[in-house]
Design goal:
Layout lengths: L2 H4 L4 E8 L6 E7 L3 E7 L2 E6 H9 L4 H4 L5 H5 L11 E10 L4 E9 L2 E8 L4 E5 L1 H7 L28
Antiparallel strand pairs: 1-2, 2-3, 3-4, 5-6, 6-7, 7-8
Length: 165
């Protein structure tokens, strides 16, 4: 065990940076008594565990995600975001996992630029978010806001038995 983990500091593993219009977005995997994904841009960052990332992978449109951010139009008009998993992966998939959930995170290249693909393989669902959307996600003050998506514990309410259970 490294000294950083023994003292409670998280190990930070660089995953990727998305550049384009606007400030770059960087992603790191944090490991310390569990795994989280840190999404950061400028001085703002958000840390999401596997369950919260899976809830993002469940989304079939940008509508619900747009309800959580300060500028909903940024999410709804992001040219990169796609609420399905048909983009080409760069071949590197990082898994963020807990005892309850696991999500694959990878950089993808779409027709409109780079994005991040979030896939919940056990559920058979995924989504791609572009830098424009991720810049809004990092501004979410309280990750408890995501909890309203968990009214149906196995996925979206419109398709409660979607994917493997």
């Amino acid at each position: 065990m490294s000294d950083d983990i023994a003292t409670g500091a998280a190990e930070r593993v660089y995953l990727m940076e998305l550049a384009g219009t606007g400030p770059p977005v960087t992603l790191h995997k944090l490991i310390s008594k569990g795994e989280r994904l840190e999404i950061a841009t400028g001085d703002e960052a958000i840390k999401l565990d596997a369950l919260l990332l899976e809830s993002i992978a469940w989304q079939r449109t940008g509508d619900r995600l747009s309800e959580l951010v300060d500028t909903p139009e940024a999410v709804l008009t992001d040219p990169v975001s796609a609420y399905e998993i048909d983009a080409d992966h760069d071949g590197t998939v990082t898994r963020i996992a807990s005892e309850y959930s696991g999500v694959g995170v990878s950089k993808v290249e779409t027709e409109n630029g780079p994005g991040v693909c979030f896939v919940a393989p056990e559920r058979g669902v995924g989504t791609v978010l572009g830098p424009q959307t991720l810049r809004e996600v990092v501004k979410i003050d309280d990750t408890f806001d995501f909890s309203k998506w968990f009214r149906t514990p196995f996925g979206p309410e419109d398709t409660p038995t979607e994917g493997a259970i």
